[in-house]
Structures are given as C-alpha cells and as structure tokens.
Specification:
Layout: H1 10-20, H2 38-43, H3 49-65, H4 88-101, E1 123-127, H5 153-157, E2 163-167, H6 180-187, E3 192-195, H7 219-227
Parallel strand pairs: 1-2, 1-3
C-alpha cells in the first residue's frame, strides 16, 4: 500500500490493513514491518482490542488445526524428512498438475495433441528463446530448480521418435538480437514446428509492469518468419 501511495507510513498501513480484515503480513523484515506498529495503533485508539482479538483468532485456529501445538508424536508432519523432497510420487504429481493446468486457446484442424505414434520419421523443429533455456521457464517466486529435473520443450521433444531440429533465434526473452537465418534454416524442412515465445521474469515480474501486451523485441518477427 505504501508503494501504491494508498498510505504514507507503516502506522497508517497497519491501521488500514486491520480495518480491512487483513491479519497476516508478508513483511519487509523482522525489525521494521507494518504489523509491528499495531501496538502503537492500539494505544492511539485507531484500532480496538476486540478487533485485534478478532484478527488473531483465525491465525491460531489454523495453527491448531495444523497441529503446531500438538506433541510431535501426534503430528504426522513431524515424521517427514528429506526423502520426501523430489520423491517419484511428488514429481509424478507435479507432472500431472502441469498437464492439467495447460490452457489450449485454439486448435485448428485438431493439430494438437501431438501423438507419439504419429511421429516416427517426422521432422520436428522447436524454435524460440523459450525452447531450450531452463532459466527462463520459471515464474516469479519459483523455487530454485534442480537442472536434472528440468525438461525444456527441446529436451522433451527429443525423447520422442522424431528428428528434432532446434534454433533459439534469440537467446533471451527480450530478443534484441535476432538471427532470422538460424530460424529459417531450422524450420525449412520441418513437418511440425513448435514455437516457444513469451516474456518471463526478465521482462515482467512483481514491481516490473509492462506498458503493452505485445511480444518483446523481435519475437513477433520470429513467429512471422516461421509461418512464412
């Protein structure tokens, strides 16, 4: 709220947040954050003790339901260890979630999905700045990924029984330097072309908004070269 100039101080922000029903802060730090000013707001009469209790109650109710105050033997989460991290079960669940979250906006003549049984002998081209760059595939607030578990579009397509060619065209999402010849050379003889474009955190993220929704740099030109 400070960044949007809705309030001028942390104290004003604390009062406005409490009055709006907010009871949890993603803070700047432990020493100087908004909700550290709640005692001052209470002393000045900007909020009431009953309001403070009303805001705190759901927090502790949730923590109690999660078992935070139970003996460790009663809490099933206390038995988890690092073996649960990147376990096959969790990676399979992540894969299922990713597949189910895809949104297909248009599918002319039923081109998709590509079926593995139809691909032997076919020539595939995968192009664009997102085709084989693991760094740009993750959004804002994503965890630090392990490279061995990252499948870029190129790596994924190369697991199929097809002849796959690749060209980035431009090697970063801003796409300021574009090699048309590289892209045209990769797609010229292809039966199927997969174009991987977008923005990524290099172009937009929290506190880094864009003025328009157009593709960055030469990405639209890249797409047009593929279509032609």
């Amino acid at each position: 709220m400070l960044g949007h100039h809705y309030t001028r101080t942390f104290l004003e922000t604390a009062v406005a947040s409490m009055n709006a029903g907010c009871n949890l802060e993603l803070s700047y730090g432990m020493r100087n954050n908004v909700f550290m000013h709640i005692p001052q707001a209470l002393a000045m009469g900007n909020i009431t003790l009953q309001m403070l209790r009303d805001r705190v109650r759901p927090l502790f109710y949730t923590r109690m339901r999660l078992g935070e105050f139970d003996p460790p033997a009663m809490n099933p989460y206390s038995t988890l260890d690092l073996s649960a991290v990147q376990s096959p079960e969790h990676r399979n669940l992540s894969l299922e979630a990713a597949v189910k979250s895809f949104v297909l906006l248009k599918n002319v003549r039923g081109t998709l999905p590509l079926r593995a049984r139809d691909l032997p002998g076919k020539r595939l081209a995968v192009v664009g700045p997102f085709a084989d760059n693991p760094r740009v595939l993750f959004g804002d607030y994503a965890p630090v990924p392990e490279p061995r578990y990252i499948y870029t579009p190129r790596r994924g397509l190369e697991t199929l029984m097809a002849n796959v060619s690749f060209a980035a065209g431009c090697h970063e999402p801003r796409c300021q330097q574009y090699s048309r010849a590289e892209v045209v050379g990769a797609v010229g003889a292809a039966d199927v072309v997969v174009v991987c474009l977008g923005t990524g955190t290099d172009v937009e993220t929290e506190a880094k908004d864009r003025r328009d929704l157009s593709l960055p740099g030469h990405q639209l030109e890249l797409l047009q070269d593929v279509v032609q």
